[in-house]
Amino acid sequence: MTILIIEDEKDIIKFLKPGLEAECFAVDVAEDGEKGLLCALSKEYDVIILDNNLPKKSGQEVCEELRANKKTTPIIMLSVLSDVDKKVELLNTGADDYLTKPFSFQELLARIRSLLRRPKKIEDEILRIDDLELDSRRNTVKRGGEEISLTRKQFMLLEYLMRNAGMVLTRGMIMEHVWEMDADPFSNTIETHILSLRKKIKNANKPREFIQTVPGRGYKLEA
Ligand code: CA
Questions:
Q1: Which helix (H) or strand (E) holds 7?
Q2: What's the CA-to-centroid distance between 185 and ligand 1, angstroms?
Q3: How far is the CA of 60 from the centre of ligand 1 (A)?
Q4: CA 51 to centroid of ligand 1, rounded, Å
């Protein structure tokens, strides 16, 4: 899952980016409202964390412009203002949630997870296909009850494939939802990760291959 942080305060970026990466999100950062808007319009993020007080364009303006451009990406607004009127105003401009600074990382994480499962149910935090099970809250993967140790990227790739099981996912879609924006789109990194992921989720007793290559199109995880 990819997250865009639009925030100019370096301290907050320094605290959020590694924290979210450790929770298996790919994180892009934009440090002013204009850049943030461009990023959010050019890539399909799963969640946007948007500070209200930004250089060049306010968070509120960014939010309004995104919604005017029919971008439905869930947005969590950050603000130092704590009065109720401002909160209502920001939610009315199209933000999905609102956090007042200072906030705890755990609280932000809980809000992100709640937005990601909307409108799905809580059970969706554990994804299951056949005997393959991915727990997106605990960041664990099991096959036939046995835990499999994956790298962060392998986990993110598998989560994206499992959330979209049965659908053909192109390289571009995988790039957008699993890799950071500055990743090289021409490198063979997706292929390499698919190969290593296949090896890890393989079970000698069950020949089933979960991840299918769809020639000329991309990859599909068989539901
Ligand atoms: Ca700010």
A1: none
A2: 31
A3: 12
A4: 6
The number of residues in the chain equals 223
> Separation of 36 CA from ligand 1 center, angstroms?
12
Mean pLDDT of 105-133: 81
CA of 63 to the centre of ligand 1 (A): 15
Q: Distance from the CA of 187 to the center of ligand 1, in angstroms?
A: 35
Ligand 1 mean position, distance from CA 7 (Å): 6
Domains of the chain: 2-116 (3.40.50.2300), 126-221 (1.10.10.10)
pLDDT at 62 over 90: yes
Contact by Cβ (8 Å): 89, 101: no
Give 71 Cα–ligand 1 centroid separation in angstroms: 22
Predicted local distance difference test score (pLDDT) of residue 118? 65
Neighbours of 115 (CB within 10 A): 17
Task: Determine the pLDDT at residue 86.
Answer: 76
pTM: 0.72
**Ligand 1 mean position, distance from CA 50 (Å):** 9
* 119 has pLDDT over 80: no
Helix axes 152-163, 189-201, angle to 10 degrees: 80
* Token reading at 53: 């007080």
The CA distance from 153 to 144, in Å, is 22
Rounded mean pLDDT of 127-156?
Answer: 91
Nearest-angstrom CA–CA distance, 203 and 128: 16
